[in-house]
Amino acid sequence: MPSLYARRSRSRAAAFGTAAAALSALTLLTTAPAAQAAPPTPVSAATARTYLAELTVKAEGSSDGYSRDKFPHWITQSGTCNTREVVLKRDGSNVQTGSDCAATSGSWYSAYDGATWTAASDVDIDHVVPLSEAWKSGANAWTTAQRQSLANDLTRPQLIAVTDNVNQAKGDKDPAEWMPPRTAYACTYLRMYVQVKHYYNLSVDSAEKSAIQTKLSGC
Questions:
Q1: Which of 5, 66, 90, 189 shows the smallest number of beta carbons within 10 Å?
Q2: Cα angle vertex 73, ends 161, 66, to 5°?
Q3: What is the pTM of this model?
């Protein structure tokens, strides 16, 4: 039978091993890469309904004078990364980038249509409130700096990575004219849209408000 001293030594060794393992696990946790940032979470449906009621209702303005160049994008966010590259990294999975910050690999799930892509060239960064729509809703009277803020807004849910041809089909349409083909995303999309319009004090036309109101009522 092992001596009392031998049993105590083994007990101490086991305890030390357990503590060392715990310390090693803690070290791994504290040195692991930070979690990838997620797209901004939109306001709740209830808040979106409140925001919608607060928006100014007026006839849509003219597109005269509109140009995407009046909404400068994509601007540099940090280092060599511009807004598009930041959103691609944020919205993708296992995204790897080159020294110029351009995505070299990864995958992107498009919430608008449920498709997944493995080439960044198949993905567009959509302005949830289209720039032309913003222009006709009040941004025509803004400064260039204000329009630049909207076009590169990473704080509000204004930018999202989606399938390129779905984004092109959307164009400058508002929710009375276009909704994501994946109906499960409808409520999220409307919450995003209303939040951005409310934050920037952009107006809605009557058809636009009616469509949003009807669709939000089921959220």
A1: 5
A2: 105
A3: 0.83
